[in-house]
Amino acid sequence: MSLASFWHQQQTKPGLALAFLLLITVLGSCSTEGPYHLYRGDIMGTTYSVQVAEHLVNPEQLQLEQSVLEILSAVDASMSTYKPDSELSRLNRLPPGEWMQISAELVEVLSLSQKINRQSQGAFDITVGPLVALWGFGPQQQKEYRREELPADSAIQQLHKQLGMDGLELDKAENLARRVRDVQLDLSAIAKGYAVDQLARHLFKLGLRNYLVEVGGELRASGKNARGRPWTVGIEKPELQRGIAFAAVQLRNKAIATSGDYRNFLTIDGKRYSHTIDPRTAWPVNHALASVSVLHDSAAAADAWATALNVLGPEQGFALAEKLGLLVFMIVRDDENTYLTRESAAFSAYNQNTVTD
Length: 357
Ligand code: ADP
Ligand code: MG
Description:
Elements: E1 8-9, H1 16-28, E2 37-43, E3 46-52, H2 59-62, H3 64-79, H4 87-93, E4 100-101, H5 104-119, H6 129-134, H7 153-162, E5 168-171, E6 176-179, H8 191-205, E7 211-215, E8 218-222, E9 231-236, E10 245-251, E11 255-260, E12 265-268, E13 271-274, E14 277-278, E15 283-284, E16 289-296, H9 299-324, E17 327-335, E18 338-343, H10 345-351
Antiparallel strand pairs: 1-18, 2-3, 3-7, 4-6, 5-6, 7-8, 8-11, 9-10, 11-16, 12-13, 14-15, 16-17, 17-18
Helix pairs in contact: 3-8, 5-9, 8-9
The chain binds adenosine-5'-diphosphate and magnesium ion (MG).
């Protein structure tokens, strides 16, 4: 039996706190050694940050802040379910059967969603929209609003019947999409990652090679930080309070996304209900997994896989991650004060060279 088949009690590694502090320092933009630029703000109901550890030279590079905003706004205008006039909202309103011309970007995300839906055996499913709303996490809900009792079983069952990605058809050659029945598409679990990829591609096209971009906690890094070291990021402790580092990971030209039940959840009769819906049951996921982080070349794929593995849970999700060779770090809640961790073989192999600076 390999070591990886056991859950591990987390050991606090020397240097870990320091690594996270360094990240904070870099974010704070003071006391850096090399060239350094930071842009941040709000988008898609969350925050973003772009850090560049290079001199900006040509006019396009000097207009980076403006172009970053344009890219983020474009993703939002295409994929938001909060904006009634986004491409996605218009597709959701179009009568089933009718084709709609959509952007190449939306085709890319819908197509990746189909692929990860298949690979995750249905765990990742962007037609969960109506169930997300029923459980009280949808765009219509006020931030302060939280359900105080469970939805009626009949309502859950009715929406469960509608679920399924066979309700969406794509014509990739022509950039067309249509719903074949009344499914409601929700890209919340992949769009932030996609926005990160779009930013990274943009910076690369501008000739930049050393950057860390982030939208809503999903990150992607290229090259080195201002100290000439690999970008090191913290995997958060799965608790309500933000920014406590639990583990450190070096991102060497990789993206990382985390999915968990520790921030967006509701409590009914003392029980915690996550905003991640299990499409097999139409209920919020219910297992001991507190968070799952996925490293991937693409932030969109990392984002979607984090949600998929969160649905599948600590055993099934871990087994699938191993089978597909995904880079995965899981944190499980043992009792109130203990967290256990588990990492896939591919993650261990990737991370063993990490020296936290
Ligand atoms: P997390 O960081 O916890 O993954 P995200 O914001 O990335 O959170 O994704 C959660 C959102 O994804 C939910 O609010 C919901 O809109 C949507 N979602 C919930 N369950 C699923 C699922 N099984 N497949 C795809 N999307 C889902
Ligand atoms: Mg996600």
